[in-house]
Design a protein that fits this description.
Structural class: alpha+beta
Number of helices: 8
Low-confidence stretches: 3-26, 33-37
Oligomer: single chain
Strand content: 5-15%
Mean pLDDT: 81
Number of domains: 2
Largest sheet: 3 strands, mixed
Order of helices and strands: EEHEEEHHHHHHH
Helix content: 40-55%
Length: about 230
C-alpha cells in the first residue's frame, strides 16, 4: 500500500537499510541489476531474498526496474492495519517486522496460509512493485485500484507454486472476474477479497503480464473519478 499511491526507468542500485535499535554493520547481497545493502539479521536475509525475487519477476513481466536508492525499514506497528507502506517521492518503504507480522491474528486473511517469513517476503515484493511503478499515469486524483492491482499481482506471483495453489483454493473463485469487480470500493472495504480477485483475473488473461503493462502505461484504468479515498 502506498502513502500517496502511484515508473522509474533506470537500472537500479537499491540501498536498503533495515531499521533496528542499532545497526553495528551492514552487508551487501547481489540481485539481478541490483546491489542491496541491508543490516544484519533474519529480516536482512529475507529482504535480500525478496529483492532478488522482485527483480526477476518484474523483468520477466516487463515492468520498470526498481529505482535507485530505495530504502526499506522494518517497524513494529503502523497506525493503520497496513503490512507495508511505500512513501511516494521519498524512496522509503516501511514494512512490519517478521515478528510483528507473526503476531497479527489474521486467520481468515488471503495470505493466512503463508509462514510469517514467506508473508514478509511477499509484502516486500508488494511494496517494491509500488516503488517500481511510482508515477503511473492517472486521469483522476487517485488510481489506487490500478496501482494495487499491479502490486498484488506481483506479490502473489512471487510465491512458490504450492503457495499460489493454496491462495487460489482459499479464494474459491470459479468464474471469470470482470474488471468492474476490481474497483477501489472493494479494495478499501475488503482488501483481501480484492487481492484474491486480482490474482484470479490476472491468471485468467491470455497475456497476464501484458495486462499489467497496460495498467502501468495508463492504457487501462480500474478507478473512477468520483471515488475519493
Amino acid at each position: 500500500m502506498t502513502r500517496r499511491r502511484w515508473t522509474a526507468l533506470s537500472l537500479f542500485t537499491v540501498s536498503i537499510l533495515v531499521a533496528s535499535p542499532a545497526l553495528p554493520q551492514s552487508r551487501t547481497c547481489d540481485a539481478p541489476n541490483a546491489s542491496v545493502t541491508v543490516g544484519d539479521g533474519d529480516a536482512a536475509a529475507l529482504i535480500c531474498d525478496a529483492a532478488r525475487e522482485a527483480a526477476g519477476i518484474f523483468a520477466a513481466c516487463g515492468l520498470p526496474d526498481i529505482p535507485a536508492s530505495v530504502r526499506i525499514e522494518t517497524v513494529d506497528a503502523f497506525e493503520t492495519d497496513c503490512a507495508g507502506i511505500y512513501h511516494c517521492g521519498r524512496g522509503l518503504i516501511e514494512v512490519l517486522s517478521p515478528a510483528a507480522l507473526a503476531a497479527r491474528d489474521l486467520p481468515d486473511g488471503a495470505f493466512s496460509d503463508l509462514s510469517p517469513e514467506a508473508y514478509f517476503r511477499s509484502v516486500v515484493v508488494h511494496e517494491l512493485a509500488h516503488a517500481a511503478t511510482d508515477g503511473m499515469p492517472c486521469p483522476y486524483e487517485s488510481c489506487v485500484a490500478s496501482v494495487e492491482y499491479v502490486a498484488y499481482a506481483m506479490q502473489v506471483k512471487s510465491l512458490g507454486p504450492a503457495a499460489q495453489a493454496g491462495f487460489e483454493t482459499a479464494a474459491a473463485i470459479d468464474r471469470a472476474v470482470a474488471l468492474e469487480e476490481l474497483n477501489p470500493m472493494i479494495l478499501f472495504v475488503a482488501p483481501d477479497r480484492f487481492a484474491q480477485r486480482v490474482w484470479t483475473h490476472f491468471t485468467q488473461q491470455d497475456d497476464p503480464c501484458g495486462f499489467v503493462r497496460r495498467l502501468v502505461a495508463g492504457e487501462v484504468v480500474l478507478d473512477h473519478g468520483f471515488f475519493d479515498p
